[in-house]
Amino acid sequence: xxxxxxxxxxxxxxxxxxxxxxxxxxxxxxxxxxxxxxxxxxxxxxxxxxxxxxxxxxxxxxxxxxxxxxxxxxxxxxxxxxxxxxxxxxxxxxxxxx
Length: 98
Known about the structure:
Layout: H1 17-46, H2 51-59, H3 67-97
Keywords: Membrane, Transmembrane, Transmembrane helix
Transmembrane segments: 21-49, 69-90
């Protein structure tokens, strides 16, 4: 007879409402910033210029030739994130069997 494992890798830890709200605000701000940068880059590539767009671009100290840097960063993240996820999954699975 096989022993059934009750392994459940989902960690159910209740966080406070304030902590949850702070996380939501931070994530919304980060995604808004990413969307702003992407929209500005697309606008510059399409040749759409305005005074406010140029001001924001200069304020954020972005360069039109930063695409190579962004591509390298995205490539590194595409390699590192799955490796880290696999590592954490194995680590959590080992803790569940202990």
